[in-house]
C-alpha cells in the first residue's frame, strides 16, 4: 500500500494551476451564460416596453393638438370682431366688441 502512494506522482505547480484554471473556466462559463440569459430577458422586456410606450405616445400626441373646430370658431370670432370695428367706424352707434378667444392650452391631464 505504501508503494502505491510512493509511485504516485506529486503534482507540479504547472499541473496544479492547470487544474485550477479548468475549474475556474467551468465556473466562468456558467457565470457568463447566466449573465447572457439575464441580458437577453432584459432586452426583450426593453423592446416590448419601448413598443408600448411608442404606441401610447403616438395616440396621446393627438390630444396635444388644438381641435380644428376650435380653430374655426376662433377665426369666425376674429372675423366678427373685424366687421364690428368696420361698422363702428361708419356709424355713430358704439357696438360692443366681443372679447378675443383664449389661446389653446392643452389640459394638464394630457401633458
UniProtKB/TrEMBL annotation:
DUF6535 domain mapped to chain residues: 17-110
Keyword annotations of the record: Membrane, Transmembrane, Transmembrane helix
Pfam family name, one: DUF6535
Domain of life: Eukaryota
TM region positions: 39-58
Name of the protein this chain belongs to: DUF6535 domain-containing protein
Organism: Marasmius oreades
Amino acid at each position: 500500500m505504501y508503494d502505491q502512494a510512493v509511485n504516485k506522482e506529486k503534482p507540479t505547480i504547472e499541473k496544479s494551476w492547470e487544474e485550477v484554471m479548468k475549474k475556474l473556466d467551468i465556473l466562468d462559463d456558467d457565470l457568463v451564460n447566466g449573465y447572457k440569459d439575464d441580458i437577453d430577458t432584459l432586452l426583450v422586456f426593453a423592446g416590448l416596453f419601448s413598443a408600448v410606450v411608442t404606441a401610447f405616445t403616438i395616440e396621446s400626441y393627438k390630444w396635444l393638438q388644438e381641435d380644428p373646430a376650435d380653430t374655426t370658431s376662433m377665426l369666425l370670432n376674429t372675423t366678427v370682431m373685424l366687421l364690428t370695428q368696420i361698422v363702428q367706424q361708419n356709424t355713430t352707434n358704439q357696438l360692443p366688441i366681443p372679447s378675443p378667444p383664449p389661446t389653446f392650452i392643452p389640459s394638464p391631464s394630457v401633458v
